[in-house]
Design a protein that fits this description.
The protein is an alpha+beta fold. The chain is built from 17 helices and 5 strands.
Amino acid sequence: MAFVRAIVLAYERYGADPQGALQRARISRSQLARPSARVDAEQFESLSAAAMQELDDEALGWFSRRLPWGTYGMLCRASLGSPTLGVALKRWCRHHRLLTEDVLLRLEEGPGPGARLVIEQRRELGAMREFCLVSSLRYVHGYACWLVDSQLPLREVTFPFPAPRHQAVYPLLFPGPVRFEAAHAGLHFEAGDLALSPRRDEPALRTMLRRALPLTVRQYRRDRRLVARVRTHLGDAPSSGATAQDVAAALHLSVRSLHRQLASEGASLQRIKDEVRCRRALTLLGRTPLAIKRVAMEVGFADEKSFSRAFRQWTGESPSGYRRRLGRPGG
């Protein structure tokens, strides 16, 4: 409801009446007065769309000048032909400066893994501050996910204000841990994501812009790269025996979403775990003198017997037979 009240403030700034937009979104004045009240994504999309068009300001009163209806669509189009996601984000930041200098966006790469998109506040935003910074980051992340057609996990999301009373909503908005009272608002992207190639073209952009608000309100659900992310996570030896709960938590998903998205890619968690364990077992058996009992522990099995049974199912031979065939020592 804090974000709904921020939109009402935009109406007040422009001397307009929000009642019609609130009614279309099925939000009552009594709800507005209750800090604990909630609205769903569809209601918020309806209210946002009405306010942006009625006020002719896609920034909803945050900045010292209006951003007329269609402004962020132009920003999307200006970044569309980029060869990589990193270039697209740099163009987004550069072109955003043409819209306003009340906040400045910049992409910081290195040192360390990943890259951080930071918002530098250049003007006092008052009661609009939280909604402005949250929305600005959602716009960037939603567009980036749409551009590469995959949910992009975040190493961290930061905000330069104390945790609000409604902080529980933040995990619904961002796929990564959120930290408050930071120096700046920002998104910390995973290493390698900036090298991803865009998958969208002009016709796809025109289709998206007919109903773009869901990208800013809801997390992007499609994930063409989830199998690779699960493999990477399980590839660490301590994680090779991880449960579905462990993997889902590490990837900022629910267990149900993890299984559903893997199934949509024709995969399953158990199959990926078996592939990762098998690959690691083959490496350890073929390249090290570790005892088979130790190899079993390294790939997440409680005992040698269960490991040998699984290894035979994977490869059609026993661990010791595999070693003998390679001419490797070790029992």
